[in-house]
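REQUEST FORM: STRUCTURE PREDICTION
Request ID: SP-0412
Submitted by: Lab K.M.
Chain count: 1
Length (residues): 184
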Amino acid sequence: MKLKDKFNYDIEPYRSLRDSARVVSKEYLQGNRCLDEAKEYVYIEQSLKFCSEIVHRQAHKFLELLDTFGDLLHERHLMQEYPDTEEIDWRVTFTDMDSVFDFIVKVLENIGEALESFHAKTDNAQFRPMALKTEELMLINSQDHTMFLEMWAIYDQLNEKGSAGSPTSFDSWCEKQLSEEGAE
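STATUS: Completed
RESULT:
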């Protein structure tokens, strides 16, 4: 029996992993595409250069995480599949920074749900290493989710009526975050 006849999605026990693996890959790809759109809106329409860089880095991080997810499939000689992603109309989706943050948080929640579903399929003795690596991806996603919630809170605080802040103050805060990240 050849390797590809033993390890593929057409036979058990791997058949049950295909759909959830495709969803994880799709959500990472969708996240990359959508956050790149969001980055453009933040940079061009909101003039927040440093905030747009944070969003852009997250978009590219999704591609790295997509590769990490693919690596855990490859450990079982399973092929990573790349489903189509949907295009968004930024003119409808992004109307202000609150809509941008709300959208990014939803993207991260969608990724979290996809990872949770894949984890549920692999949380058994047979697939324990896959489940553990999926948990690592879940933790990374949770940290990213928290980071964007914190950014949103800072943005809101700096832009409340009567506060001394402004979008420019927020972008300065983002610049500081980037410089601290570079110092690590």
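NOTES: The radius of gyration is 19 Å.
Reviewed by: T.R.
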